[in-house]
TrEMBL record:
The keyword Transport does not apply. This is Alpha-galactosidase. It comes from Streptomyces zinciresistens K42. Keywords: Glycosidase, Hydrolase. It is an enzyme of class 3 (hydrolase).
Length: 689
């Protein structure tokens, strides 16, 4: 062994090299980039001279406790019973596994062993990182991040992240960080609408600069923090944020942090998005190959006014245009005339389904449609029977008022009895009725988050564990049921959820141009096959800027197509057009969901789109974001959308028009689109000849 051993983790196109530091007992990043980038002096190395700070504060450390790294941000703050908040550790050995690495550090005085864990994911450019702690006496962990990574930069870093609020999730946002700290996160018990637990870091040299990304696999409270350091580096650390401010570790207990997925692409943000897409296709496992059916969801059409006749009328119309699945959203159960009641009492409302719910489901299925149902398993309405029988099942703080959000309370899903109730409820529904699809919603964060007289607890982690336990149960006990993840739109989209659901709902906002921006941001971090998207009525409830039915279809076809409009009001011509789009979608959905996706331009451009490539087929969704005044430009030329990654020497044939193009033409000039007042979107399928 050399005095400072190095280990390189190899992914499909990249290498991640870690070494033991010459400066102290810690691991530090030596190189992260394309294969071979580790051969040469480390770009993260530094002068080894410090003033007023310690070497540990300046090192590109992979993980350090407060104590060893006193000034510039530590990943771990651990305290013993005496209250001393710091740890000083010794290296305790490395273990290489076939695809991973474990580096152990021990603090004998404090009684804490910390193992930094690394695992590559085959077929991807992802390195997963997490940390395991074992205590030999009772400890208090005030900070327990998953990992830290360091990115060398020249004049500063460009950070790309996804921000928003309810109905405006996943807005791509950028800032230049030259000095100082940038932090985002959530203490809402879910990742939240304000920030996605995802960050990309590049040098400020250009949009195409190599891109480094992190994403935290955690359904609860979290933070991602980037700190621009004086020596030309940005250090990013990420992890969970305990609700109680600290986690108690009992003697002999082992605690594992959430995994931080670390991604690299030499091809800028665009290439980075494909690294994430490929990883999420892997997270879906064999269920990736289950075709995502064309859904109809009645929420926007009927709201809480769910009753059999109206739903069946919608189901008939949906089947008529080619939908494959009918989902009844909120409002189907007893006490749910509006959002003030009913949650927790998960029984179909007999007044709404006078011939019985099973008969209603059978009627839907007789139309050739699968059947789906909305549930919000963590929620309870104050007047419900569930709340009357189990008032102790909700989060609450003795002596404090219980605030309502959307008129409802939140069940403490960290409790095993609550998990068992939720599992029994879902089993009952799925065993009693022929249900193929479940939409799991969650519409309020915890506020008075307590569990009276239960002793010390890690409520956030317990809620996450309960949520994942129920999702795991659904997958194991009801493997045929497709699951959609939703939290008041896109409030709980992260890798733990994506690995256990089939699709997620990015936002309640389905208005065409707003949705375009939401999906543009979403596709930076997440794969098309998980992106549920509906065609709804125009003008909708959000952004009234007009766009055609074609635009709304092409936009929704960029992910998993659904319809949420009130089809009862649609004219025969609209229904015929919709049927045409749905038929086209069915022909290309395998390319959209399984192919390589490339974002073409941004919604700020007058024409933007998404290109999908698989097996010699290229599908281009093209959208005009410009004015629709119908005045032709005189003289004028068609808009062009430059495609990418085609073979310049090959010929590509537009299957609809028969026009052929050379790859060079499509790369150099692009596909032409002659937009007009009533032609603002197109879907082009090119076949390589
Ligand atoms: C919020 C979801 O995001 C919507 O799609 C819908 O299911 C409503 N909840 C129902 O209450």
């Amino acid at each position: 062994m050399t005095p400072y051993p190095r280990w390189t983790l190899r992914t499909e196109h990249t290498g991640y090299t870690v070494r033991l530091s010459p400066d102290g007992p810690w691991a530090e990043l030596d190189a992260w980039g394309p294969h071979g980038a580790e051969h040469g002096p480390s770009a993260l190395d530094w002068s080894h001279r410090t003033h007023f700070i310690t070497p540990a504060d300046a090192a590109p450390a992979e993980y350090l406790p407060y104590g060893i790294r006193p000034f510039t941000g530590a990943e771990l703050i651990a305290a013993g019973p005496d209250g001393e908040r710091g740890s000083w550790w010794e290296f305790d050995g490395a273990q290489e596994t076939g695809t991973g690495l474990r580096l152990a550090f021990t603090d004998g005085l404090l009684g804490l062993r910390t193992v930094l864990c690394y695992e590559t994911v085959p077929g991807t450019d992802i390195v997963l990182r997490w940390t395991e702690f074992t205590a030999s006496r009772e400890l208090r962990l005030e900070r327990l991040d998953s990992a830290a990574v360091t990115v060398p930069v020249t004049a500063g870093a460009r950070l790309t992240y996804l921000t928003g609020q309810w109905s405006q999730e996943f807005q791509r946002t950028q800032l230049h960080l030259t000095r100082g700290t940038f932090t985002m996160g959530s203490i809402q018990g879910v990742p939240g609408h304000a920030y996605a637990p995802w960050l990309a870091v590049q040098d400020t040299t250009g949009e195409d600069a190599p891109a480094y990304g992190v994403a935290l696999e955690w359904s609860g409270n979290w933070h991602i923090t980037a700190e621009a350091e004086p020596g030309g580096a940005v250090r990013v650390r990420a992890g969970r944020v305990p609700h109680e401010g600290a986690v108690r570790l009992a003697p002999g207990e082992r605690l594992t942090t959430p995994r931080l997925a670390c991604a690299f692409s030499a091809d800028g943000l665009d290439g980075l998005s494909r690294v994430w897409h490929r990883y999420e296709r892997r997270l879906s496992g064999e269920r990736l190959h289950r075709p995502r059916k064309v859904l109809y969801n009645s929420w926007e059409a009927t709201g809480f006014g769910v009753e059999a006749a109206g739903q069946l009328e919608l189901a008939r119309a949906a089947a008529g245009i080619g939908a494959e699945l009918f989902v009844v959203d909120d409002g189907w159960f007893t006490g749910r005339a509006d959002d003030t009641g009913g949650l927790g009492d998960w029984h179909p409302d007999p007044a709404a389904f006078p011939d019985g719910f099973d008969r209603f489901v059978a009627d839907v299925r007789a139309l050739g449609l699968d059947f789906g149902l909305w549930v919000e398993p963590e929620a309870v309405s104050p007047g419900s029977r569930l709340h009357t029988e189990h008032p102790d099942w909700v989060y609450r703080v003795d002596g404090r008022p219980a605030r309502l959000v959307r008129h409802q309370l939140l069940l403490d899903l960290g409790r095993t009895d609550v998990q068992d109730f939720v599992i029994a409820t879902l089993d009952r529904l799925l065993d009693t009725y022929a249900i193929d699809y479940l939409k799991w919603d969650m519409n309020r964060p915890p506020t008075e988050r307590g569990r009276p007289s239960a002793g010390p607890a890690d409520l956030d982690a317990e809620h996450v564990a309960g949520y994942l336990r129920v999702l795991d149960h659904l997958r194991a006990a009801h493997p045929g049921v497709t699951v959609e993840g939703c939290a008041g739109g896109g409030g709980r989209v992260e890798h733990a959820t994506i690995a256990r659901t089939d699709v997620v709902w990015p936002s309640d906002n389905t208005a065409p141009l707003d949705r375009l921006a939401i999906q543009h941001g979403f596709l930076h971090a997440h794969a098309p096959h998980v992106m549920s998207s509906w065609v709804t009525d125009a003008p909708g409830v959000f952004d009234p800027r007009p766009r055609s039915l074609a635009f709304r279809f092409v936009n929704a076809m960029c992910g998993v197509l659904g319809i949420g409009a009130d089809l009862r009001a649609w004219t025969p011509a609209q229904r015929a057009e919709a049927a045409g789009w749905i038929a086209r979608y069915k022909e290309v959905r395998d390319v959209v969901h399984l192919g390589e996706a490339r974002l073409l331009g941004t919604p700020a451009d007058p024409t933007c789109g998404v290109q999908y490539d698989a097996d010699g087929r290229t599908v281009v969704a093209a959208l005009s974001t410009g004015r629709l005044d119908g005045a032709p430009l005189v003289p004028g030329r068609p808009a062009r959308l430059r495609l990418r990654a085609l073979d310049p020497a090959a010929r590509y044939r537009d299957t609809a028009s028969g026009t052929t193009y050379s790859g060079a033409h499509l790369l150099h000039y692009g596909l032409p689109f002659a937009w007009s007042a009533d032609h603002d979107a197109d879907l082009v399928v090119l076949t390589r000849e």
